[in-house]
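Methods — Computational structure assignment.
A single polypeptide chain was analysed. Its primary sequence is given first, followed by the predicted tertiary structure written as structure tokens.
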Amino acid sequence: MRHALALSLLAALLSGCASHSPEDLNGTWINQNAIDAAVKGNNLRQALLSNGPNLEWKVNIAASQATFSNGFEAGDGALKAVKDDEWEVDFYGNYVEKLSLDGDELIQAASDANPQPSTFERADKPAPADAPVGTTFETALYSAYLGGDWKVIEGPGSGAVVHFRANGQLDGMPGLDRYALCLAGDCAAMSGEFDSLWLERNKQGNPWIFKRDGKQLEIFQAVNQAKGDEMPDLHPGTRRWLLERQ
């Protein structure tokens, strides 16, 4: 009896230590650490950069393909296994990223393109397969960072309750129906140290500077301090709205 019990325990131990199958890598993985840091901090893009720069991976084992998003651009690479629980993603000979599985987490190793390792969690609610890479991360970020009820304390629509939907829909702010947070890329270059977002109605809109501090969200007019032939250099101007999370 003791011999059988020992064998049973050994089998369970070996099973727990067994390597992952390639299918375990399949699916959509998001940088949850970046989302958590953004929710806790005051500067959105700094939180993303400190935990990125990549924010999402989509892995397709059947196609031997892996795609990343950094919030601005996406890159497709050829996926191949190098040993148990470790894979390489070759971006057409330009550079290689290394992925591995550690328990339930996907690890992107440090590389020349990305100087620090990053950790990703499998998405509970991945975006549809035909959605652009990065959509799952963006949806999760929007929900965590701006979800809930926001009341307009000062500004147009004072007293109204505002909802920043996870799909980019905006309710409750007069004259506006969509928003988008600036995560990286040209919009980040234009606003520099300041966080920015895009507000629009009927696909017509403008950039704004914002500051989120705990339960308060301030939205400022974006003042361009660049010359006419230079890239826009956006700074906060007059405060347009003050919102408070309920």
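Note: The chain has five helices and 16 strands.
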